[in-house]
Amino acid sequence: MSSIFDEKTMIQYLERSIPDGEALAAGIHGIGITSQIKQAFKNCVLIGEQLIPKENGAVLEVSKEKYAKCDVYIGITQNYLIVSECELYKHCYEFNEHPELREGEAKELCTAISIQDIGTCFPLADIQTCIIKKGWMGSVNCSITMKNGNFLKLLLPKLGGVGGGMPHHAEYREAILARLSGCGISGK
C-alpha cells in the first residue's frame, strides 16, 4: 500500500495548513488537476524560495500554477477548504513586484513562508462558484473559482485507495461535497 493512502499521514499534511482556531472536519486523498493561484503580500522580500517580512519591503504578487495531475489531500474545516500536496511537485511561479491591486488585496506578511505553502488554504466564504460533475467510475470533478479569480480543479475519487488505509473515505468525501454544495455556490 502506498503511504499516501494513509489517513494518519493525510491528517498530518492537512493540519499544516489549517488556520488557528479551526479543526479538520473531513479529509480525503484526491487528484489536483489544475490550479491557478495569485496572492499578494506587502512588506516582504523574496529570498530563495521564501517570502521574508521586511519593514518597508515591496508588495509582491505571487502566481502559482500547475496544469498536470498530482496527488493531493483535500480537507474541509468549518470555514476553510484545504488542499495539500501528498508529495513535493513542481509549479510554475511568477513574481510581480509592481502589481496593480485594489485596496486591501495585499496581505501583510508577519512571518516567513515558503512559496510552496501559498495556495493551500481557501476560505469557503471566498468561493464564487463550484461546479460539481460526475466523473468516470464514480469520481466527482469539482471546478472551484474564488471571488479573487483563483481557480482549482479537483477530482474526488469514489474509493480511497487499496489496503484499507483510508477507512473513512466515503463518509468524508460526502461531507466535503455537501459543504462545497451547500455554501451558496452553484453546481450540477
Largest sheet: 12 strands, mixed
Q: Helical element count?
A: 2
Beta-strand residue percentage? 35-45%
What oligomeric assembly is this protein in? single chain
**Poorly predicted ranges (pLDDT <50, ≥5 residues)?**
none
Report the order of strands and helices: HEEEEEEEEEEEEH
Structural class call reads mainly beta
Describe the structure.
This protein is mainly beta and 188 residues long. 12% of the residues lie in helices and 44% in strands. It is built from 2 helices and 12 strands. The protein has helices spanning 7-15, 169-181; strands spanning 26-47, 50-53, 58-66, 70-76, 80-85, 92-96, 106-108, 113-114, 121-123, 127-134, 140-146, 151-156. Strands 1, 2, 3, 4, 5, 6, 7, 8, 9, 10, 11 and 12 form a 12-stranded mixed sheet that branches. A hairpin with a 5-residue loop joins strand 10 (127-134) and strand 11 (140-146). The longest helix has 13 residues, at 169-181. It is globular. The protein starts with 6 loop residues before the first helix and ends in a 7-residue tail after the last helix.
